[in-house]
Each structure stands twice: as C-alpha cells, then as structure tokens.
Amino acid sequence: NAGVTQTPKFQVLKTGQSMTLQCAQDMNHNSMYWYRQDPGMGLRLIYYSASEGTTDKGEVPNGYNVSRLNKREFSLRLESAAPSQTSVYFCASTGMVYQETQYFGPGTRLLVL
Amino acid sequence: KNEVEQSPQNLTAQEEEFITINCSYSVGISALHWLQQHPGGGIVSLFMLSSGKKKHGRLIATINIQEKHSSLHITASHPRDSAVYICAVSSGNQFYFGTGTSLTVIP
Known about the structure:
The complex is a heterodimer. Helices cover 0% and strands 50% of the residues of chain A. By secondary structure, chain A is mostly beta strands. In chain A, the strands form 2 sheets. In chain A, strands 2, 4, 5, 6, 9, 10 and 11 form a 7-stranded mixed beta sheet that branches. Chain A has a 4-stranded antiparallel beta sheet with strand order 1-3-8-7, with no helix packed on it. In chain A, 37% of the residues are buried. Chain B starts with a strand and ends with a strand. Chain B has no helices and 11 strands. In chain B, strands 2, 4, 5, 9, 10 and 11 form a 6-stranded mixed beta sheet that branches. In chain B, a hairpin with a 5-residue loop joins strand 4 and strand 5. At the A-B interface, strand 5, strand 9 and strand 10 of A face strand 4, strand 5, strand 9 and strand 10 of B.
C-alpha cells in the first residue's frame, strides 16, 4: 500500500497562475483533508471531505477550491495564486471524519513569486 | 486564538535523557493526537487518545481530560527521536494543531 500520495512534490508559480494539487489514498478511507503548514503557525485546515461527494470549508479556505473526484482522490486548486499561498501543503485521510488516526501525504512545497 | 498550546517550543536533550513535551487545549475534544514530523517533512501519527494513557515502545502519551492537558514522554531518548512533535485535537467539525515542539537529541 502506498498510503497517501501527493503530486507534485515541489512547484514554483508566478502570481496569478493556477494549479491543482493532487492527492490520492489507497486505504479505502472515507474522509480526506487539505492542510497548509507555515512557519510558526502550525497546520491549518483548508478544506475537508467527510465522505465521497461532500466537501466543507476549514479554517483558511479563501483562495482555494477542492474536488472529491471519487473515494480515492481529493484535489486542491489554486485559481489565481498569490504570494501569501506560499506554503507546504499536506493531504491526509481517515476512516471517519476526525474520529480516527490521520495518515498524511509527503507534502507539496509551493512557492508563489 | 490558540486552541492548542505546546511547551517547550524547542528542546535539546542528551541521549538517554527522559523527555516530556506538554500540550494544553482550550476546547472540548473528542480525541487528542500526537504527531511526529521528521526533518524531511513527513508527518506520522504517534498516538490518538481520549482518556488515560497509551504506550508504544519508548513513547508514552497521557491525557487529563479535566485539566485539558496531555503529555508526551520519551524514555531513553536517542538521536533518531530528533523531530518536531505536534499536538492536535479534534473538536466538533474542526481539527486544531499546536505549533510543535522541536526536539534535538545529542549523542
């Protein structure tokens, strides 16, 4: 089992460009999450999907959109990247929303110039 | 707003020392989680607990629900324990994270 995978691992964007971060899990988990991690801030929840077909906003959703493509995949889209979105992005999954151990992907480092 | 506070922020220890990292939270929770983040960036879940105490190898996690406090202990610390340890709580429809404790264990 690969667990949680994320692509790309690293990306540089110019302000205003768009991109999609991909996440997939092979553990048959119902719930998936997108976080960003910034120095001194801790991990912050951007969006989550409690189950296939549902998505909800987290603490910092502005500037992002998500799609739960199927049970395995949960993507995060930046429509018009801003320097404030420079961060490390982590995807995670659990069997049930917030009730179980979270499994994290390796992260995507995004630099917006 | 800091729903989860950790202390200390940074910790340096000699190999074999007993280490304690503390976590306090201010919200009602369904569970508390301890995570480990290695220098390469990957995050691994160490414990999830809602009461009492859990042990895994040299790691012990305790929680006091009444005092809204948890501790992570590392016995006989080793340089490979050097990492950032993150406390997180699940509360309602949210997940709150502490800013982490950076641990360095010196041989």
